[in-house]
Write a structure and sequence with these properties.
The complex is a heterodimer. By secondary structure, chain A is an alpha/beta fold. Chain A is 48% helix and 15% strand. The longest helix of chain A is centred in the last third of the chain and has 16 residues. Chain A is elongated. Chain B is built from 16 helices and nine strands. Chain B has a six-stranded mixed sheet with strand order 6-5-4-7-8-9. In chain B, strands 1-3-2 form a three-stranded antiparallel sheet. Chain B starts with 5 loop residues before the first helix and ends in a 5-residue tail after the last helix. Classes of the chains: A alpha/beta, B alpha/beta. At the A-B interface, α2, α5, α9 and β9 of A face α2, α3, β1 and α9 of B.
Chain lengths: 288, 364
């Protein structure tokens, strides 16, 4: 069931909290403005701070369809927007061997039954019913970024054979980037921008408990304290909030009530880092 | 209600702009509309509303905070002071410090037997200002420098007569013209694209005579190829890609020289490279790239830090090239670097750097 987006920051924060997503003031403000002004929102930040999760949560809480487009190098219109069903088109042409089939039959070839919808077209057609998540846009290349401009500015796409398809009402668009490269200014200009930082320790405990309600609070505090110390170390891949939650989940699953060196795999995912962490193990796991 | 605030917000955007944050009239419009949705009288709504609409870069956030505090809360130094400081900084092009006396650098100079007069001449001059001859040399080099970094195949395709990938779209289009008769299978093949080039330049004391060449080379490279990133280091790392992007050579070099704060100081190659890997490499800047380190390898830091940084860097990038202007092998850094570097080439003058440029296409 679709629910309206709230019109205050507090209302929005509260609704997201019901699904276990704790948004800080800045993020909630950005999201509110995005829904009111119908602007795409670009989220940047370290890995695993909840960029993708936000779109999923919004879709869930407000009863929208999550349309997700995972970007990768070389992604193009055929994979992101639409594709013609060539095999069916060919068969159709063969079936129409009668010479008097004429113009209409040919026009049918580019009718809706031969059009294969890809995520962007789906999102445009569903309009406000959709939450469009364009994930890791930094992995796509410049060409694809340029292609997105029309969609982000006017919520419309152009298919040469059919014409311009406009969203009946603008969908909420969330773009995420891990900053593996700088995005184009033209793209940024069309978006609201929010930088997601690691949460404070206090907040991260709340997040862990919201996600894993059955976890003892003492253990949650220990996990968060250890993760915060890990982030201070000079690691190649510092753990994100997602890793904190994974670790807590793992400890609970295994029935531990203390941090355990064997479960480090949930947070430290680089061999060199593991060496560093093992060398400082006592310090990291000390205290809560 | 929000209308009353508009002049205030526009003034804030102007203050941001004069602090160097690029924000356009369209952004200001969005900001005002956002404020109307939020509560324009609530300062934290204004703060966040402005931050999500007026900024587009993480790096601008501290500057935004500062301007916000000054503009709305009246904190910080008055604006006049700020301009003065900025101008003062601009004038201090390069107050070149004496090279630190002890350590391996002095030994290196002894070995090389540098002529004192030449060294002084270079040092007395600001790095930015070029003589007409040098400017001409740079122009010549840009014209001549066929900087073609090695290329790689991308995931994008283009039509090709005999490619490995069938092009269904085009094939179907062709059959339409023949009432469904398939005449030929059209094909595509993958496109190629130049790899990014990353220059990491040592501008420490022991490299004093070469820093100038390196900077000129970097400028030329930046002008000659699209995807070039340039970093400088002595004791700390500075990114000067944007500065070198200026059209005017003199201006670009001056700007770059101003940005780098540790000219001719000591060398901490290991730490600088470690920082490079941590801040830039890990984010993917040198993934698939050709990384060229220009340094003599005279490191004052811990060799192990250097070894670790290089090992990681070698794994991140496509090819690691080290160009060394001093023709002496055996500097600690070079010994440590050897196992991780794909290629070591001389780089003692502009000509040898050009040779390096000529070598690049073969590194694919």
């Amino acid at each position: 069931m679709t629910r309206e987006y709230p019109d205050t920051v507090a209302g929005l924060t509260g609704q997201l909290r019901t699904a276990g997503y704790l948004a800080d003031r800045g993020l909630a403000t950005a999201l509110l403005v995005a829904t009111r002004l119908h602007r795409p929102i670009l989220l940047e930040g370290e890995v695993g701070v909840g960029k993708t999760e936000l779109a999923k949560t919004v879709a869930e809480v407000f009863g929208r369809d999550l349309v997700r487009l995972q970007c990768y190098e070389g992604i193009d219109t055929a994979q992101a927007l639409y594709e013609w069903d060539y095999a069916r088109q060919l068969l159709h042409i063969r079936a129409l061997s009668a010479p008097d089939a004429g113009e209409r039959a040919v026009a049918d070839l580019f009718g809706p039954e031969f059009l294969v919808e890809r995520p962007l077209l789906t999102a445009v057609r569903r309009g406000a019913q959709a939450v469009l998540l364009i994930d890791e846009i930094d992995r796509a290349d410049d060409e694809f970024e340029a292609f997105l401009l029309e969609l982000l500015a006017d919520f419309q796409v152009t298919i040469p054979e059919i014409g311009t398809i406009r969203a009946p009402s603008p969908p909420l668009v969330v773009l995420t980037s891990n900053r593996t490269r700088e995005l184009h200014d033209a793209l940024k200009r069309r978006c609201l921008y929010h930088w997601l930082d690691y949460p404070s320790a206090e907040r991260e405990v709340e997040i862990v408990l919201a996600r894993e309600p059955e976890l003892p609070e003492v253990l949650a505090r220990k996990v968060v304290a250890a993760v915060h110390r890990l982030r201070e170390l000079d690691l190649a891949k510092p753990p994100g909030v997602a890793e904190t939650i994974d670790w807590a989940r793992m400890l609970r699953f295994l029935g531990f009530d203390e941090l355990d060196a064997d479960t480090l795999g949930a947070v430290v995912k680089d061999r060199d880092d593991l060496d560093v962490v093992r060398a400082n193990l006592a310090e990291i796991t000390s205290g809560g | 209600m929000a209308e009353a605030f508009v002049p205030l917000f526009v003034g804030f955007a102007r203050a941001l702009r004069s602090a160097g944050v690029a924000t356009g009239p369209g952004d200001v419009l969005t900001f005002c509309r956002a404020a109307a949705v939020l509560d324009p009288a609530d300062l934290s709504d204004v703060y966040w509303g402005g931050r999500v609409t007026l900024l587009g870069r993480h790096e601008d956030i501290p500057r935004y905070d500062e301007v916000f505090r000054r503009y709305f809360l009246g904190d910080g130094p008055p604006p006049d002071d700020l301009t003065l400081t900025a101008e003062a900084a601009a004038d201090a092009v390069l107050a070149l410090p004496e090279t630190e006396g002890d350590g391996p650098e002095r030994e290196a100079e002894a070995v090389l037997g540098l002529t004192a007069s030449g060294v002084e001449a270079v040092r007395d001059k600001a790095f930015g200002a070029c003589t007409p001859e040098e400017l001409a040399a740079i122009r010549r080099m840009i014209a001549r420098l066929r900087l073609t970094p090695p290329r790689r195949r991308t995931r994008r395709t283009r039509p090709a007569r005999n490619g490995p990938i069938p092009d269904l779209r085009s094939t179907v289009r062709g059959t339409l013209r023949r009432y469904g008769e398939i005449d030929e299978l059209r094909r595509r093949r993958r496109r190629v694209k130049p790899r990014p080039l990353v220059l990491v330049l040592d501008v420490s004391g022991s490299m004093a005579d070469y820093s100038r060449h390196l900077l000129q080379f970097a400028y030329s490279a930046r002008r000659a190829a699209a995807r070039v990133e340039v970093f400088c280091f002595g004791t700390r790392l500075t990114r000067i890609t944007d500065e070198l992007g200026e059209r005017d050579a003199d201006f670009a070099l001056a700007k770059a020289a101003r940005t780098v704060v540790d000219w001719e100081g000591g060398t901490r190659i290991g730490d600088s490279l470690a920082e490079f890997v941590r801040r830039w490499g890990r984010r993917g800047l040198c993934r698939g790239a050709v990384v060229v380190i220009c340094s003599d390898g005279l490191d004052r830091g811990d060799p192990e830090v250097l070894a670790n940084a290089l090992e990681r860097l070698a794994r991140l990038c496509h090819r690691l090239v080290w160009t060394n202007p001093h023709r002496l092998a055996g500097a600690v850094g070079m010994v440590v670097a050897a196992p991780h570097v794909d290629l070591v080439v001389p780089g003692h003058d502009l000509r040898s750097l050009e040779e390096l440029a000529a070598l690049l296409p073969r590194l694919g």
